[in-house]
Amino acid sequence: MGARDWRDLPRAPAPGAPVCTAGALAEPGTLGLDLGGFPLLLVRTGIGLFGYFNACPHQHLPLDWRGGRVLSADERLLRCSNHAAGFDAATGQGVEGLGQGCVLIPVPIEETGGEIRIGSS
Ligand code: FES
């Protein structure tokens, strides 16, 4: 089953909305943000910058609810801090534990001129 469209979620930000400065997100690293009531998880790995609606499909808690360390050391997995569901960091597909058969909802992210914004696609 495919992911829901982020634009249909409550309080979805407008395309182009500012998120944060590029320097606020470590490489590699993750950053959970509240954009006017819309929970966003930014993920930066060696292969790119990704964004997800920060609600784990298991119990709809933020992935970083119990701590900010959700990116695996090899940068391939996001592991929910609540019950350890594992998701592919680049696609959001559930690949381990309670994440299997689930998917994170992707949010397009753009980075230009030292700023991170919501993308348009
Ligand atoms: S809320 Fe994420 S694994 Fe349970």
Automatic annotation (TrEMBL):
Q: What are the record keywords, sorted? A: 2Fe-2S, Iron, Iron-sulfur, Metal-binding
- A GO molecular function held by the record: metal ion binding
| Superkingdom field | Bacteria
| Cited PROSITE patterns | RIESKE (PS51296)
Give yes or no: UniProt keyword Iron. yes
Pfam families under this entry?
Rieske
Give the transmembrane ranges. none
Q: Where is the Rieske domain?
A: 17-118
Matching SUPFAM superfamilies, A to Z? ISP domain
The answer on whether this UniProt entry bears the keyword Iron reads yes
Record-given protein name = Nitrite reductase/ring-hydroxylating ferredoxin subunit
